[in-house]
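Hi P.,

Sorry for the delay on this. The queue was packed all week, but I finally got your sequence through. Input first:
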Amino acid sequence: MQRHLASAVAVAVAVALAGCSAPTDPTTDGELRIVASTNVYGDLAATIAGPDAVVTSIIDDPSADPHGFEANPRVQLELARADLVIANGGGYDDFVDEMLEASGNTTAVVLHAVDLAGTDPTADGFNEHVWYLYPAMNDLVGAIGDALDGIAADADRADRVDGLQRDLAALTERAAALAVEHAGEGYVVTEPVPEYLLGSAGLVNLTPAEFTEAIEEDTDVPPALLQEVLNRIPGASVVVVNGQTGGPQTDAVIDVAGDSGVPWFAVTETLPDGLDYVTWQAGLLDLLEDALAR
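Then the structure:
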């Protein structure tokens, strides 16, 4: 069971908008409008679409836990006008599909990153955080380009897609290089957010799934389970935490990592201020390289 982005207010929002005027037909309003569930996908879309597109990222606060997000009428109005909608899928941001349907917009092209990643949301241990899976992002970039080509012509779009995919290939190569040197080394995480990144570097997860699930679901961690995780930290090469959540268990993990001399760093679920996707991920690879070099 994953802790998903809040969608409980979708029905209430639909009711609140029931008295509003009909939304503008996005195919006739003259604007290329893209709505993404988070600024991770919004940034990729903006890079591909170019400066004339109107890109709205529903969740874009780097200091907030995305799982605490609550949709509102403004979100549904943006979705009502969208030509292209990009969501993560896999249960992570179901409110996007719910509110898009409630908006009455039946013409928008909808992309789900999880579908393009080829992952199975019904599989045990499914990890929905596919923006840390670079081949999946490569496929998403291609799909965004194809979708936009079907909406509005742009002679320069293919070059933007190619450039972004080259950057993603460089990230993939960096992770693969780490796997050559560090395959089989262990890691500990507080949540499964960075597991695709760490796995692509050849690292092995030492963290019990029951622990990361409890942290992700914000439920109590049994003391014996927490102690088991803390005991595994000295045998790990790196510890990675979710910088947008926290609590006593996460603090304990960080403290033991520091006391044991095991390097640690934080990742996030949304794009930090001032960074684009490629720069953000390159910086995380820098942190991982530095940690593994110790």
